[in-house]
Structures are given as structure tokens and as C-alpha cells.
From TrEMBL:
Family designation: Belongs to the ABC transporter superfamily.
GO molecular function: ATP binding; ATP hydrolysis activity; ATPase-coupled transmembrane transporter activity
ABC transporter domain location: 5-225
Keyword Flavoprotein: no
Upper taxonomic lineage: Bacteria, Pseudomonadati, Pseudomonadota, Gammaproteobacteria, Chromatiales
Any single Gene Ontology cellular-component annotation: ATP-binding cassette (ABC) transporter complex
Name this protein carries in UniProt: Energy-coupling factor ABC transporter ATP-binding protein
The keyword RNA-binding is assigned to this record: no
CDD domains, A to Z: ABC_cobalt_CbiO_domain1 (cd03225)
Record organism: Chromatium okenii
InterPro entries in alphabetical order: AAA+_ATPase, ABC_transporter-like_ATP-bd, ABC_transporter-like_CS, ABC_transpr_CbiO/EcfA_su, ECF_ABC_transporter_ATP-bd, P-loop_NTPase
UniProt keyword list: ATP-binding, Nucleotide-binding, Transport
Domain of life from the UniProt record: Bacteria
Amino acid sequence: MPSLLELREVHSGYPTHPVLRGVNFALAAGERVALIGANGAGKTTLLHLLVGLVRPTAGEVIAFGQVRRSETDFHAVRAQVGLVFQDADDQLFCPTVLEDVAFGPRNLGRTSAQAKADALDTLAALGLAGFAERVTYRLSAGEKRLVALATVLAMKPTVLLLDEPTNGLDAATEARLIQYLAALKQAMVIVSHDQQVLAQLATRSVRLDSGVLHHEPRMNSAKHP
């Protein structure tokens, strides 16, 4: 099965401080990969490489069958790959929740009416139906986390890159979010220190250690729709 996203012998970092060293990684359709490792291991850097927010110092980034190098190359990738940042404040910049969630669909060329409909549908699916006119900066940390996810899901991406998706969520909201993510068909890369989250979502895991990516034994506990 061809890969959706791939890193080939990728290096990243600085001469005196390498972050990734010769990383090989591939994500196929339907996979949900747990990306684990200690703080500072380079997990966020790997996610950012996949969408061109960081460029490799050596090696290749391949997305949907094409080598991607330039900013123009990655514009097309970001239309299909949704990255949920570790810090929700990095993702939310509009005055209201509805404007934030509709921004991505509008940017993809959907009409204002369709973008609004997509945004409202996504908010409802995440249990945020009453949040459309809420002022974004007044939300709690957990609410911001869910809205940040909504901004990505409203774009209907092919791949989801989730950087600590349950940070700041209470137990009930986390359980609801896991159930929602488990039912999605998108391929995913999930960075999380929460083993319960990974056990319920991931189909396999990889570990970053000292800049090197190791493939872990396949995870069998993930629940599939």
C-alpha cells in the first residue's frame, strides 16, 4: 500500500545540536501511529517536517507520492494534512470560535455559506454546538483544545497530526474525544504521554530516542470503527 506521508533518511537540527538523525517513517491510509519519546526528543519537529513548517537539513519529505521541498509544494500538503498544535493558542487567532473554525474551509476555497455550515457541523460533532459566538480568548484551556481540533477537522483533511490532543481536558471530555477520534477514518500520527489515549487509538507506535526513530511492537488494543 503506498504511503500518504513519508520521511526518508531525514536529518533536522543544527550541527552542534541534531534533533533528528536519519529518520525513516511512513504513514499509510487507515493507520493511527503513536509517536512516543521523552520531552525534547523531537516529536513535534517530526510533525512539523511532515507539513513543511520545518525543513530537513538532509533527506526527503514525500507527501501523496511527491517529494516536497518548496513552500509552494507544502501548500498543497497542508490542504490535506491537518496539524493540531500542542499549544491551542498557536492555532486560534480570530475573535470568535465560528470565525476560527470556518477560516480553514474558506481558505480552501469553499463559499462562506459552506464554510459556516462545515464549521457548525464540526462544532456540533465535538459537543460544542453552543460555542459559535463565544470569544476565543475567554475559553478555558480544555475548550481551546477542542476548538483547535475543530479548526482542523472542519477542513476535512486526509491525515491528522495530533500533538498532545488531550492536554487540558477533564476525564469526561477526554473520553468523549477519544470516542470521536476512534470513529474517524483519517490516518493519524498521535503524540501523547497519555498511555490510555494511545492504547485506545493507535494501531502501532514508533519511538524517538536521541534523534533516532525506533519501530515498536505492533499495538493490538486499539479499537477500530
